[in-house]
Amino acid sequence: MLELKNIHKAFGDCVANDDVSLVVHRATIHAIVGENGAGKSTAMKIVYGFYNPDGGEILLNGKPVNIRNPHDAIALGIGMVHQHFMLVDTMTVAENIILGAETGSPINLDLDQANRNIKSLSDELKLNINPQALIEDLSVGQQQRVELLKALYRNADLLILDEPTAVLSPQEVEEFFNILRRMKEQGKTIVIITHKLDEVLAISDEVTVMRDGRTVGNVRTAETSAKELARMIVGRDVLLRVEKTDAKPAATVLQVDGLAVEGRHGMAVDGVSFSVAAGEIVGIAGIEGNGQTELIEALAGLVDPKSGRVKFEGHDVTGLGARKLKELGIAHIPEDRHKRGLLLNSSLAENSILGVHYRPPVASTAGFLDSAAVDTRVRSIIEDFDVRPAMPELTAKSLSGGNQQKLIIGREFELDPKLLLVSQPTRGVDIGAIEFIHRSLIDLRDKGRAILLVSAELEEVTALADRLLIIREGKIVGEVDPKTASVEEIGLMMTGG
After folding, report:
1. Which end of the chain has fewer CB atoms within 10 angstroms, the N or the C?
2. How large is the angle between the packed helices 170-185 and 140-153, nearest 10 degrees?
3. Cα–Cα distance between 395 and 186 in angstroms, integer?
4. Is the overall model pTM greater than 0.85, yes or no?
5. In angstroms, rounded to a whole number, what is the distance separating the alpha carbons of residues 269 and 57?
6. Which is nearest to 308 in space by CA: 277, 276, 270, 264?
7. Helix (H) or strand (E) holding 328
8. Closest by alpha carbon to 16, among 213, 194, 210?
9. Given 3.30.360.10, 3.30.2350.10, 3.40.50.300, 3.30.930.10, which CATH number is that of 2-234?
């Protein structure tokens, strides 16, 4: 159905696609995998008309096509669901879906007809979406389905999905895959850009591997393995499991007693108590939206708790702001890198000093930035955490999602914190970088630092954590030993089964 021939695309001196060629067959699920910055999203954004190629050719159903913009792509039956959803929170599902493709006339918008059409499409694919629901009231998984509906409403036959499961729970992922299988049975063709090799093996028919802007392999999924794909992606053997020694917990660093935090719809964190000691990783597992975000943000000083106490190294720090907590030795890797982690229009150098920009060695006692110290800091982070492209003057928005994540992690590790609060550390990160980030967290633990880890990846949090707390509806509902507890047992606690 789709063929790319020698696609070339450069952004200044940075070559994103270097003669990329691939073939996607009709009514299949085709995965594209590769490291962050390998050029996967760029190639598919060219297919969708977000970017125009500098060279090469796109064929659709065997015929050359000129796709100048997304409007051209939609007219050709191509839809794309982006990693960061493009939905208006205060509008209904139907209003979001028909935006730009309105039913009726500009004077008399036929929302009733649109609601009926969307309900019919939702029922056909068993998406279970109410067209009249507000986006802000939907879970992340439901918003993902709205994005699918938006593309299908425009009669897309070829769907491009960029990191479609990055924010879904394990249960939502399985439901989502069932939807994709039903779409394939109806003759739709699906391209998935992803880092998750287990999902590639579970859902795809064929896999294209990219590295450094080039296509380095194309294999049938049934004829490959996670180990082989990882080797093709990174160019070396990759450790697919976390290796660590037993923790040696020492003094309590963080003590939380009866903490309550208000959310948008009532009490998001409800009387939570736990502790984290030096030299251990305490994990928090739960379906997203059960208070994890509000808990971490309260501990990081971004929101004030309603009640309860937080002690750090024995001192009451309840309600202290983010700057003061950072000065005490608490670092924070946020779950939403765009909202909480980066200034997207600022350079890598400027982003590398956020949180320390007002104090030595980055700033003089007079408050002026030391450009040499800033340059040393950003280059150290870029080198140690393999941020690509290695260009301090680039804006943060120029990086792929995974490289943005590595920049944030490097910045927080550079603080040498006593306590690290980390949410979704490997969201949107490639297999090689995941291995590196996991190793870095274990090394930090082994240096005697305390780590509180929140991850929607159940496999990740059970592999890294020394103790695992289960959160549901804002309460800690249990603690398990991640070495002995089964995934089924943890899943039942997460869902209240």
Report:
1. C
2. 20
3. 42
4. no
5. 53
6. 270
7. helix 322-328
8. 213
9. 3.40.50.300
